[in-house]
Design a protein that fits this description.
The complex is a heterodimer of chains A (about 425) and B (about 375). Chain A is α+β, with helices and mostly antiparallel strands and about 425 residues long. Chain A has helices at about 10-25, 30-40, 60-70, 80-90, 95-105, 220-235, 250-265, 270-275, 280-290, 295-320, 330-355, 370-375, 390-400, and strands at about 110-115, 130-135, 140-145, 155-160, 175-180, 185-190, 200-210, 215. Chain A folds into three domains: about 10-80 and about 245-265, no CATH class; about 110-235, Beta Barrel (Butyryl-CoA Dehydrogenase, subunit A, domain 2); about 270-385. Helices cover about 40% and strands about 10% of the residues of chain A. In chain A, α4 (about 80-90) crosses α6 (about 220-235). Chain A is globular, with a radius of gyration of 24 Å. The relative contact order of chain A is 0.10. Chain B has about 375 residues and is an alpha+beta fold. Helix content of chain B is about 55%, strand content about 15%. In chain B, a hairpin with a 2-residue loop joins β2 (about 140) and β3. The two termini of chain B are about 20 Å apart. Classes of the chains: A alpha+beta (about 425), B alpha+beta (about 375). Chains A and B meet through α10, α11 and α13 of A and α7, β10, α8, α9 and α11 of B.
């Protein structure tokens, strides 16, 4: 039994307050403050003592984060995919990798991106064909990645690439940490149908990865990638946005933190619109008088039923989970599927309410352009983070226990039909 | 407000479910639906005396168990799942709620204990099963005499006590009379869903006793409580259809593989599960709202609409995924399909309920 298990919540709270009283200073630069915070062991108290943590359990960590929230303390960097990289390195990396990469992630010195999806492997991530070969003691990588949030300003990336084309597809994959600042890495922003550019394409041409930047051993990349993906699911996606701290806070560290959050959130300003902006439906219907139209009322009511139903189903699943029920609670995939249905219905209702006005776009159009942005952003909701079709497969197979599809992608990867 | 069932409530569900699993298998359902009475009197007697279900939500002062809409909902949900045939919905739900929300004390004292015990088979006679706003044009009382026609009354053919909402010229009143009173004629109406018997009831100067005034508010409240119980019955039925259909797709082989391995079916099953989960959560929420007297004021209509659409979707998919066998009399799916169809339009169509909820939302200006 480690000694941290004997700590009471009260003694933890006392220690946090005492440490903050001695160290917290809002006039520090963001970097300076975070270096003190990380080295003090209070940034990630659930991490091991050997790596910036205190081996705290969930409850003990919650005591710490509650005090941080109450006192308005600026936390370590957590925007973008950097925390996925950090948690993966912590779980699967070697000590050398942990020593080199974890601290600059937490302090915000290094920004990271995720190099997983490819033009030829979207839903079928394990079908990736970016190639990594060991040549003269280092890995040489060739291929193309896509949907890489933050890649245009990332210092490093977590990368999955194929190191053996003769093994079945899940077995020939390896997981790397790649330096993005090198000639073999070209990043291009990818403009979406709604005009925003939240993602990138990354072209890897004889890009170099040092031999000791392989994570989890050659051929074990799929297991490591699943670790990253499970953190992604738990955190609600790479692309979650981050709120500022409550209340008015003054000082250099707050200004720099606000700037960081603003940059990190920039790619996601359209995310509420892709969910359909259900909140705008009633006010819009009232303003325009469309609420008098019986056909609109029917569709609005359907939308409200879906929206409330999804919220209640998610609450019920959460309650069941908390009560420790063994019953399979299909909350994640069902919630995602429901979000798609709701967004599409919301776009439909917005269209009915606007009528010909829905032909307009831009800041002069309805709700300062938000309605128009809904109409051209909603198609993303049923694709990003796993298409609706994949969610339905997951629900059918894992929740309902329906039999799996006959597979056409067994045997050596080399022999599997694919697009490239 | 609670967000999950207590241990006691879960035990109650298990008890009801076990009873119905034994007493309401499809063979028993078919016997009931083919009989004139439409139910098995000995099973009803056990359901009321041994399990005590008819008094679930009736206050102890009137001989019931004093539970609320949540427990009643549990019972109704299990009955929907097993397609229980009997006067539970007509007597314990419709008539009891009409009394609880509209009758004077004396009438409650006189009638509710018999309903709770299952010895009185009461039913609520309405001249419209379409909408609360449509009630009152077909049945009229003058000088203590009731005349007019109620074209569709659930279980009137076996009812020992009729509770009637009728127009007395200055509004609506709740009236009571024994089922075998003179001036009352009851004629069975062939029902699309033979597991819920219907009759036409005609009154010709029948002597009635007024036992309460029915205001627009109390009528709407009665309608809401009945709809939430009905919605429970519907999600129970929808869940049965989902479960049985999934099982079927796992055991039915075509083209050398179980049909459940085809995405064409899988994806529809996943969509159906999502709808059933959402409707179920909403219906359970509605019962808790009624119990606590809080929550969305339109919640009853919301969940009646959701449960109706979900049950019908489940019924259509259950038949479609079975293919030809699903369209046969011998296979049991059509029993639930017919209950789904009749429940969809019973106490207001989904469109009516969506319009009813929008009326509330528009008036309050928020969701």
């Amino acid at each position: 039994m480690s000694e941290t298990e004997n700590l009471t919540n009260e003694s933890i709270a006392d220690a946090v307050h005492a440490w903050l009283d001695a160290n917290w200073n809002a006039d520090l630069s963001l970097r300076e403050w975070r270096e003190i915070l990380v080295d003090g062991g209070w940034a990630t108290p659930h991490w091991p003592q050997a790596f910036f943590g205190r081996d705290f359990n969930q409850e003990q960590s919650a005591v710490v984060s509650k005090i941080f929230n109450q006192r308005g303390i600026v936390p370590v960097a957590q925007t973008g995919p950097r925390r996925l990289a950090a948690e993966t390195i912590l779980a699967m990396g070697n000590d050398d990798q942990k020593r080199r990469y974890l601290r600059p992630i937490l302090t915000g010195e290094h920004s990271w991106c995720q190099l997983f999806s490819e033009p030829g492997s979207g839903s079928d991530l394990a079908g990736l064909s970016t190639k990594a070969e060991m040549i003269d003691g280092q890995w040489i990588v060739n291929g193309q990645k896509v949907w890489n949030t933050s890649a245009h300003h990332a210092d490093f990336g977590v990368l999955v690439a194929r190191t053996d084309f003769d093994l079945p597809k899940h077995q020939g994959i390896s997981y790397f940490l790649i330096d993005m600042r090198q000639p073999g890495v070209e990043v291009r922003q990818l403009k979406q149908m709604n005009g925003h550019a939240s993602f990138n394409e990354v072209f890897l041409t004889d890009a170099v990865v040092a031999a000791n930047n392989l994570v989890g051993g050659e051929g074990n990349g799929w297991a490591v990638a699943k670790t990253t993906l499970s953190y992604e699911r738990r955190m609600g996606g790479v692309t979650r946005s981050f709120g500022g701290l409550r209340g008015k806070r003054q000082g250099r560290v707050y200004d720099e933190y606000a700037q960081e959050v603003r940059i990190a959130n920039e790619p996601y300003t359209w995310y509420p619109q892709r969910q359909g902006r259900v909140d705008l439906v009633l006010p819009r219907a009232q303003q325009t008088g469309a609420i008098q139209d019986p056909a609109v009322r029917q569709e609005m009511a359907k939308l409200i039923c879906m929206s409330k139903g999804a919220m209640l189903a998610s609450e019920a699943a959460e309650a069941k989970r908390k009560s420790g029920s063994n019953e399979l609670v299909p909350a994640g995939s069902i919630g995602k599927l429901a979000a798609s249905v709701i967004a599409r219905q919301a776009a439909h209702v917005h269209t009915m309410i606007s009528g010909a006005d829905a032909m307009r776009s831009g800041p002069e159009s309805a709700e300062e352009g938000m309605v128009a942005e809904v109409l051209v952003s909603v198609p993303a909701i049923s694709i990003a983070g796993g298409t609706d079709e994949i969610q339905r497969n997951i629900i059918a197979e894992r929740v309902l226990g329906m039999p799996t599809e006959t597979r056409a992608d067994t045997g050596p990867f080399r022999d599997i039909k694919r697009n490239d | 407000m609670q967000t999950e069932f207590s241990e006691d409530q879960e035990q109650f569900r298990t008890m009801v479910s076990r009873f119905l699993q034994e007493k309401s298998q499809p063979t028993a359902v078919r016997q009931c639906m083919e009989s004139d009475a439409g139910y098995d009197a000995s099973v009803w007697q056990q359901l009321c005396s041994e399990v005590g279900l008819a008094g679930t939500h009736i206050p102890e002062a009137y001989g019931g168990f004093g539970f609320g809409p949540v427990e009643l909902g549990i019972a109704a949900e299990e009955m929907g799942r097993y397609l229980y045939c009997g006067p539970f919905f007509s007597s314990a739900v419709m008539a009891a709620y009409a009394l609880l929300h509209n009758a004077d004390e004396a009438a409650k004292d006189a009638l509710l204990p018999g309903i709770a015990a299952g010895t009185t088979l009461a039913t609520l006679v309405l001249d419209s099963l379409d909408a609360p706003a449509k009630i009152g044009s077909g049945l009229a009382v003058a000088e203590g005499r009731l005349s007019g026609t109620a074209p569709l009354v659930v279980d009137a053919h076996i009812a020992t006590q009729l509770l009637v909402i009728a127009n007395h010229g200055a509004g609506l009143g709740l009236y009571s009379l024994p089922g075998d009173s003179s001036g009352v004629s009851v004629e069975t109406v062939p029902a699309l869903d033979p597991t819920r018997k219907l009759a036409k009831v005609e009154f010709a100067q029948a002597a009635v006793e007024q036992i309460g005034e029915v205001s627009a508010d109390s009528l709407n409240t009665t309608w809401d409580f009945v709809c939430v119980a009905l919605a429970h019955e519907m999600i129970g039925g929808a869940r049965h259809l989902l479960d049985s259909t999934i099982e079927y797709t796992k055991m039915r082989y075509q083209f050398g593989r179980p049909i459940g391995s085809f995405q064409g079916l899988k994806h529809r099953c996943a969509d159906l599960l999502m709808e059933v989960e959402m409707a179920t959560a909403a219906v359970h929420h509605a019962a808790r709202c009624l119990d606590a007297g809080e929550g969305e004021p339109y919640v009853a209509s919301m969940v009646k609409a959701m449960a109706s659409d979900t049950y019908m979707k489940a019924a259509k998919e259950a038949i479609q995924m079975r293919g030809g066998i699903g369209f046969t009399w011998e296979e049991d799916t059509h029993l639930w399909y017919k209950r789904a169809k009749s429940s969809e339009v019973f106490m207001g169509t989904p469109n009516l309920h969506r319009e009813r909820m929008m009326g509330v939302i528009e008036a309050q200006g928020s969701l």
